[in-house]
Amino acid sequence: MTSSTTDYSGIAKRVIGIEAAGLAALADSLDGEFSRAVAMILETRGRVIVSGMGKSGHIGRKIAATLASTGTPAQFVHPAEASHGDLGMVTRDDLALVLSNSGETPELADLIAHTRRFGIPLIGVASRPDSTLLRQADLALVLPAAEEACGTGVVPTTSTTMTLALGDALAVALMEHREFTAEHFRTFHPGGKLGARLSKVSDLMHREMPLVGLETPMPEALLVMSQKGFGVVGVTDEAGRLAGIVTDGDLRRHMEGLLDHKVAEVMTANPRTIAPGQLAEAAVAQMNERKITCLFVVEDEKPVGFLQIHDCLRAGIV
């Protein structure tokens, strides 16, 4: 059988099964030390400095990025660069989260010594409780003994998966404690499709609105509709509250003698609206559900903006 026809799915299933068993063992091993780690991070006035060498370093970069994007200031510091000046990035206000499966990675020695010299809290993550890293750490998070998925026991596979999952668990625990929301996440992630999905109505709405009063003659209302270019006009009462909306459908329903009417006689009363603080995705859902293409944005019953489905599509919200 050639390589092009060999079925490798059995290998994939074995690897995933081994790593899944490792994750289950990690979940079972978590105890009060994990809660203490979360409390230590919450008490940190500075940043979480994440460090690790080799594969642990790659995992560390991801953990630092996840923490930073979910409300916990964090930075990855490469241990080799730390020994050549980057230790200056690690201050007394920070906390070090150091990763090493063996706990004996020599490149970490200077960083560990720096934390001990200046009283910087150190959380160590390793699989050997008696390792140098965990003996020096203020708090040890011990990875359970688990088979690496490579078959030889030398390629970091299950161990790195467990470390990554442990980092995610820390980040989510911190998020839930801080009541971190999608709106908060958008503050740290304004770009890309995710950033677009988390845009607020106020980010996309038009602030120059087509508005007329209840007693406005229809010829004047049609002029406003044409000038603004939205194809609709909002109708406000004497207190400035949104009372209705005139759309092309309303115009068709009142074609006979249209120009002899007042706006109040033609408009659709109590139109659908949305608040400026809601997600634009919610506005799209409402427009799709009601089969409409625009919404007035209101605050305290008064119009503050206008949103069209095209504004959302241009922003990448579908």
Automatic annotation (TrEMBL):
It holds the Pfam family CBS. InterPro entries: CBS_dom, CBS_dom_sf, GutQ/KpsF_isomerases, KdsD/KpsF-type, SIS_dom, SIS_dom_sf, SIS_Kpsf. Residues 205-263, 267-318 form the CBS domain. It comes from the Bacteria. Residues 37-180 form the SIS domain. Keywords: CBS domain, Repeat. The keyword Nucleotidyltransferase does not apply. Belongs to the SIS family. GutQ/KpsF subfamily. This is D-arabinose 5-phosphate. It comes from Thioclava marina.
